[in-house]
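Journal club side-thread
Mid-discussion, someone asked how the predicted structure for our own chain would compare to the paper's figures. Pasting it here so we can look after the session.
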Amino acid sequence: MPAPPKISDPVAFAEAAAVMLWSYDTRDTDHGHHLAGVEAWMTTESRYRDWSSVSARVPDPTLWSRMADQGQYATADAAGGHYPSAFLRALAEDPAAITEAYIYAVTVTGTQRISWANGGSGAEDRSITLAVQCRPSRACSLVAVAPHVAP
């Protein structure tokens, strides 16, 4: 699991976070270590942190074990990220609101490639909307996974 990038651009961070969420390797990482790696990307501000929405994206320990039995792993690429129109409208209506928490909504699209033992593989398109916190003079961090993908 890569460490979170030290960047202050919400879209670039969300793209990296999406790739991180869509990637895993059960061949050499157990469930607990994978979750710890994901948690390293999270904001430390408990008021905004929604760990349950993010950790829900990781298969539970039983499924992880079954995936490991098959040597399953996934890699991913982000095709692009953008601010959803609803977020842009809200920001235009109250530009100062962002300065309380500096949380941005970013929708990322990309592709996840899954492989497993005996040469099996497949790929599928992905889309996710993430809440990303990017305070001035600090690197961005992950806040939450939105409950649905916004346009």
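Post-session note: The helical segments are 10-22, 31-39, 51-55, 61-69, 85-93, 98-101.
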